[in-house]
Amino acid sequence: MNKAWRYLQEFLIFKLIYPILLKYINEHLIALTDEMKKDKKENNVPKLEPEYQQLPILRFIYSILFNYLHKNLIPRVDLLEQCQKQNNLYQLKYQEVIQIEPAISYQEIPAAFREKEGKFEFTNPFAAVVRNVELLGIHAIGFTQEKKIILETVLDRVDVLEHTAISTLRQGFNFQYLTPVGNIEHIDLACSLVNYWSPLYAHWIYEALTRLEVLESYSQKTGKKPKLIIDKNPPIWEIRSLELMGYRPEDYIEWNGTRAKINELVVCSKRREGGRISIKACHWVRERILSNIDTYANPNLLLSPKIFISRRKANARRILNEEEVINTLAKMDFVPYVLEDLDFADQVKLFAQAEFIIAPHGGGVTNIIFSQNLTLIELFGEKISHFYYTVAQGLKFDYACMFCEAKNEDIIVNCEELTQMVYRMTKTRIG
Q: Domain span at residue 245?
């Protein structure tokens, strides 16, 4: 009786009361301060405190929710220990250490960059098999039979779990949550690539595809091939990337967005730690995709080794004086490309032969994973991120950054400074 009452309480709070309150609060009561706007622009996981500190009711909601989450976690260390005892742990045994050098810039280097400098050692990647798992909500949070949350299913980050839980609650009630376990979708053996960030291009490439290395190692050792679970209504580039990795439609299913029971869930560790991506994993993805690229890429695509990436079709971080920038760079043989106009395979082929890339910070820079011996100049406006700096440094590329004038969410580039930086990086490349 007590157990049934607890489940009823959880259902009423998490699936009925919270979604209604959160929707009302978001639409009518929360005042988005300048500090909150800035935080949301600069961070993929903005702080929640400025929201819930405004309203006692929201503080109450979040305190109950976060208390539940924090008390019912299975962090990575516990997951490894449990699966090791059950002989359900499969690891790739190799050492990986990377060295992050200081970025080149004419301006002061942000603290977010400096914090990443120096040596960093990665842990061994693993595949852990967990039995009787329930995936729940739009972002497929993994719960054990004991209702414990597998933190690795939310990128092994408590802050991401908090945002994932709130995002799930805001989706509101779905009758699938009332359906007996015996009547929901069942999958015998699966590996989920779905999480809070998986619909985003950069996170899909660096945090989903890179997991497949250890998954395939698991398959080789066991002779079992788990079904991949991918995002519901995935973008075409997600499907194309899986094709280039050698996966076919019968190898994956789309997440139903609500609930499923997995008899055996293969939990593969994410290959990004401490804001740094595993370079061995990057090389593995690059080699796999490049080995299949000629089957898909346009043979008539114009390829230039010197590339300028335009964001003219994006919603933010567009270069307002782009025509001036293009004309300036044309004198140094740079060719502009709008990546939205290119198929995923064509983007891969373009970046694979690139020698020098200039680009505003954004998803398109993700494709440097397919490059070799590259020079990259990254242009920043209001939003500053170390994401591609650490990738480029790990791949031993020559990396420079410019912090440009920001106008709302767009940027204005100083063409004289850009020209100077191109010449400086060209000398670095030759030297």
A: 74-100+123-274
